[in-house]
Amino acid sequence: MQIGVPAETQAGESRVAVTPEAARRPLLIGVPKETAALEKRVATVPEVVEKLVKLGFRVAVESGAGDAANFSDDTYRAAGAQVVPTAAELWAMSDIVFKVRAPSPQEVGLLREGTTLVGFIWPAQNPELMQQLAARKATVLAIDSLPRQLSRAQKMDALTSMAGISGYRAVIEAANAFGRFFNGQITAAGKIPPAKVFIAGAGVAGLAAIGTAANLGAIVRANDTRAEVADQVVSLGGEFVKVDYEEEGSGGGGYAKVMSEGFQQAQREMYAKQAREVDIIITTALIPGKPAPKLITADMVRTMKPGSVIVDMAAEQGGNCELTEPNQAVVKHGVTIIGYTDLASRLAKQSSTLYATNLFRLAEELCKTKDGVIDVNMDDDALRGLTVVKEGNITWPPPPPKLP
Ligand code: NAD
Question: Which is the closest atom of ligand 1 to the Cα of 264?
Answer without folding.
Answer: 18
